[in-house]
Specification:
By secondary structure, the protein is α/β, with parallel strands linked by helices. It is built from 7 helices and 15 strands. Helix 4 (182-193) crosses helix 6 (237-248). 43% of the residues are buried.
Length: 289
C-alpha cells in the first residue's frame, strides 16, 4: 500500500475527539474518519460547525469525500456522518460487529426502529477488508475490547486506531462498557504493536495526561511499545486485565454516553419523531438500591 495520503486533523476540545480527513492528492479522493456533531446536552441543540470545517478543508484540497468511516459506536460524542453523507454522497461504513452493539443497546433504549443487523449503515466492514481511496487503499483491522465492534483503518504507514489505544503517557481505552473485554483489548493492542515500529498511529481522543501541557494525537508503534503506561513491552495479559478492571471501576460514565450511543447505533440519525413531530432522546432512569 502507498503511504502518500495527506492527513488533516481536527481536534474538538468539547469532546476531546480528533476527526481526520485522509486524502489521496493524486486522484483527489478522500475519507473522513470519526466526524463530530456539535451537541449541547443542556439545551438539546445540535449544529454541524465542526463537520463543516472538515468539508471546507476537503473543498480547499479539491478532493471528493468517498467514505465516512466510524471506528466504533462512540460513547462520548454524536457522529456527524449523516451530514457529511448528505453534502458529499459518501458511504457511511463501520465494522460489521456493530450488529452486536445494536443488539446490546436496542432494548436499553426501547429502540424498536434499530435493525440489530447494521442496516442503518451503507457498508459493514470485515477484518482484513480493503477499501479503495483513489490510488490508495484502506485496510480494516477489527480490534475488539473497548467495544465488540472497534476497528482501525490502515492507510500506508498510518493507522487510525479509534479508542483502542491512546498516547503513550495516557495508556489504553476502558473495557467496561457492555460487550467490552480487557483480555480482548490487550490482544487487539498487541496486534497493533506488532506492526513495524515506524508505523504512525493516530488517536481518536487525547485527554492530556498529567504533566503534559498540550494536546497530542500522533505517535508511533515504537513509542507505544517502549513507553505506553498500560501496555508497553513486558506487561502481560493478566497484569493488564487486572489493571484495567481496577481502573475502570473508578471511571465515571462519559457525559454524553446516553445520547451518543442511541444516535450512533442509528448511524448518526436521531430517533423517529413522536406523534407531535418532535424527536426525543431517551434517558433510562434507575433508582439507587
Amino acid at each position: 500500500m502507498s503511504d502518500k495520503a495527506v492527513i488533516d486533523a481536527f481536534f474538538d476540545e468539547a469532546t476531546l475527539t480528533v476527526t481526520y480527513l485522509v486524502s489521496d492528492p493524486a486522484r483527489h479522493r478522500a475519507a473522513v474518519i470519526d466526524p463530530v456533531l456539535d451537541y449541547d446536552h443542556r439545551s438539546g441543540k445540535a449544529s454541524t460547525a465542526s463537520a463543516d470545517r472538515v468539508l471546507a478543508k476537503a473543498r480547499e484540497r479539491g478532493v471528493q469525500v468517498d467514505w465516512v468511516l466510524e471506528t466504533h459506536a462512540h460513547a462520548d460524542h454524536l457522529t456527524a456522518a449523516p451530514h457529511i453523507k448528505a453534502k458529499t454522497g459518501a458511504q457511511v461504513a463501520i465494522g460489521e460487529h456493530i450488529k452486536d452493539v445494536q443488539r446490546i443497546f436496542k432494548p436499553v433504549f426501547g429502540a424498536d426502529d434499530v435493525s440489530g443487523e447494521g442496516r442503518e449503515f451503507d457498508r459493514l466492514l470485515r477484518d482484513g477488508e480493503v477499501l479503495p481511496l483513489g490510488s490508495l487503499e484502506i485496510e480494516v483491522m477489527h480490534l475488539p475490547g473497548h467495544t465488540p465492534a472497534d476497528v482501525a483503518y490502515r492507510v500506508g504507514d498510518a493507522v487510525f486506531v479509534g479508542d483502542t489505544i491512546f498516547m503513550p503517557d495516557y495508556g489504553t481505552a476502558r473495557a467496561d462498557f457492555p460487550g467490552g473485554d480487557a483480555h480482548r483489548l490487550y490482544q487487539s493492542v498487541r496486534r497493533l504493536l506488532a506492526l513495524p515500529a515506524e508505523t504512525r498511529l493516530f488517536m481518536c481522543h487525547d485527554y492530556k495526561a498529567p504533566g503534559r501541557d498540550s494536546y497530542a494525537w500522533e505517535t508511533t508503534v515504537g513509542e507505544e511499545r517502549a513507553k505506553n503506561v498500560h501496555v508497553r513491552e513486558g506487561v502481560d495479559e493478566q497484569a493488564f486485565a487486572a489493571m484495567r478492571r481496577e481502573r475502570d471501576a473508578t471511571l465515571p460514565a462519559p457525559v454524553l454516553l446516553l445520547p451518543s450511543v442511541q444516535v450512533n447505533i442509528r448511524a448518526g440519525h436521531l430517533p423517529p419523531p413522536d406523534a407531535n413531530g418532535t424527536r426525543y432522546l431517551r434517558i433510562p432512569v434507575r433508582m439507587a438500591a
